[in-house]
Each structure stands twice: as C-alpha cells, then as structure tokens.
Amino acid sequence: MAAALQQTPITFRNRSPLSAQLQSKPTSKLSLSSNFKLTRVTLKPLPRRRRGGATMANTASGSYASALADVAVANGTLAATAADVDKLASEVFSDDAVLSYFTNPTVGEEAKREIADEISRSLGLQPHVANFVNILVDMKRVDLIKEIAAEFELIANRLTETEVATVASVVALEPQHLAEIAKRVQKLTGAKNVKLKTVIDKSLLAGFTIRYGNSGSKLIDLSVKKQLEEIAAQLDLGDIQLVG
Fold this sequence. Notes:
Layout: H1 2-7, H2 17-24, E1 50-51, E2 54-55, H3 56-75, H4 78-92, H5 96-103, H6 109-123, H7 127-138, H8 145-159, E3 162-169, H9 175-189, E4 193-200, E5 208-212, E6 218-221, H10 224-235
Parallel strand pairs: 3-4
Antiparallel strand pairs: 1-2, 3-5, 5-6
Helix pairs in contact: 2-3, 3-4, 3-8, 4-8, 6-7
C-alpha cells in the first residue's frame, strides 16, 4: 500500500490540489535525532479574520480534512486514518511545546520536517498521513491540526453513519452499562454506528447524562442532581444546598 501511495496515481472524486499532493508526494527519508529536545518558544497568536461568520482557520481546516478524507476513502483506510489523526491531535500536538516548535518561524523547514518524520515513525502513521503532516509543515498550517482533527472526525462520522454521544458520570461506568447506553442512543437516532465519549463530572452526585445530536443538542439527564433540582422546583424551594 505504501508503494502504491507513493508511486501509483489514484483517481479521486474530488480532484483538489491537496488531494493530489497527498496521493503522490513521497514521505521523505526518516532522520532520527535521539538527542533532540523541543525548544519552548512563546508566540503571540495572530488574529484570525472572519468571513461570513466563520473564521478563515475553520474554512482552511475543513478543506484540509476533506482532502485527507478523500484519500482515506479512496484507499479504504478511513477508520485507520481517523485513528492516526486522533493520535496526532491527542498524543502529540496537544503538547504546547510541540505546537510552539512547529509554529516558530525561526526554526528551519528542514528541521521541522525531520521532526515530523520522526513523529510519524514513532506513531506508526500510514504513509499518506505522514505525507499529510509534511504538507502541513510545508504550508505552515500545523497550527490547524486540532481543528483539522475535529473536522475530520465529523466527516468520518458522516461517511460511516456514526452518532457520537458523550456520557458524563461521577465514576467510570462498567463496559456493559456503556454498551446498553450505546444501544439506547442507536435506537433513538437510527444511526448505523454509535461512538461513546466518556467524561467524569463529580457535580452530578450520582447517575449519568447522555448528550448527543448535532453539537450535543440533545440531552438525557438521569443524574441525581437533576432529580434534586426537579424536587426543589416542585416544592418551590429554589436551589438545594447540599452539605457533606
């Protein structure tokens, strides 16, 4: 597959220039530097212009995400590509030091590409995702990686008919309970697949909440906190102050 991505042209439905680069641009030879240390540089973020109510960054991130999705669909690697993008956003570029390094204009492009290649190797990224990272470095768009990851997740979920639901609870729920919640969400939404994201929220006291739908617009609240609020409203007691 790697050889095919680097040598054999692939036909895409969306023939965007970026898609063509992803398909044909070979990954540069890995250059590992065992003693490399990221230099912390504090940069002031540049203001982002708005156009039509959306930021320019959001528009660009959507374009990059769409181009990457085109390649992943053509290769039949959408799920694996989504996993790679998530690793980049959550395991690497969530570190401010890493992001500052790649957005530092005083660092040479070649040095950035070498570190990008080392990151791709260490994460075991697919060749087209490694190429994608290098393109972001070349285009000085690494600062968009988190937005691109979010946009890519939306695209992948739409293509796979996946509903994402966020489950908040006081303690981690057992796998069987999460499976039942996933079935409930699937029945409510008619989605082909359901992806659950879990968060801990001590303010719920007990029970859990499920948020799903477009931008989490729908909520199922089965928490003790909600029940106490309803009791307070019925008794016209206002907010209940718990002591303990």
